[in-house]
Amino acid sequence: MRIDLHTHSLASDGTQTPSELAEAGSRAGLDVMALTDHDTAAGWAEATAAAESAGIALVRGMEISTRHEGRGVHLLAYLPDPTYPPLVEHLDLILESRSGRVPAIIERLRAAGIDVTEDDVRREAGASAAAGRPHIADALVRRGVVVDRGEAFDRFLKPGRAGHVHRYAAELVTMIETVRLAGGVTVMAHPWGRSDPGSLGEAAFAGLAEDGLAGIEVDHRDHTDEQRDELRSIAANLDLVVTGSSDHHGTGKTDHDLGCFTTAPDQYARLMELAAGSAAVAGRATPPVVGG
């Protein structure tokens, strides 16, 4: 069984519609795929219908922007009730902040001599739930300023660069609890891929496990082999679920092909058991896995 628990569609910053993504997952030989667009469930309905048609099991989720000890970190939330009011409130704030900082980023880029406009970004964002830095990066690619999203972030958009502007993100512990109360289950996304490993070492993960974190995304393209081994050891010591995934964005990211990393079936089964337990305790109407 091949299981990929982290993908993105046009509902956030991927380049495929949810239907195209489900169909691509089936062609890639996936048995189970999670749709985890940034801070939104907007693609769930379309992906659900496509997954049932394509014969692939779909886990509905999202990747939530959070902050931990002053650093931005991402939290994968699986099978929460998307109508749970506190979750909706946090997601609305995140999306509003994401779109709201676009004018400020554009202003900074133009001050640095980069000819890009808000209209350029809106065209790239299309039907996404909110415009964000990846769409600004795509606009820079289309303008010929950079060759791909990676160069755009490295040169202009990541912290410390000319176009970076801070935005709202929920506190990590708060969001772990919010997802739990929404009947879902949480996994830390690529924890050492973008931030200093020292900020999320074993002691930090132990505290987060006590707060309700279910797992760690260990097998990810942004982790080195040594980091994967160390994260796997931390997960074993703390009895956390180990997941692996592509973090696929269509053509928006290179070397993140569907199924390039996968989750072991026993770890997936355990994650689904934890999700079912969370839903039972919360008493929420949570989305089941569909298709397959």
TrEMBL record:
UniProt-recorded Gene Ontology molecular function terms: 5'-3' DNA exonuclease activity; 5'-3' RNA exonuclease activity
Gene3D superfamilies: 1.10.150.650, Metal-dependent hydrolases
Domain Polymerase/histidinol phosphatase N-terminal, chain residue ranges per copy: 3-68
Name this polypeptide is given: FIG00031715: Predicted metal-dependent phosphoesterases (PHP family)
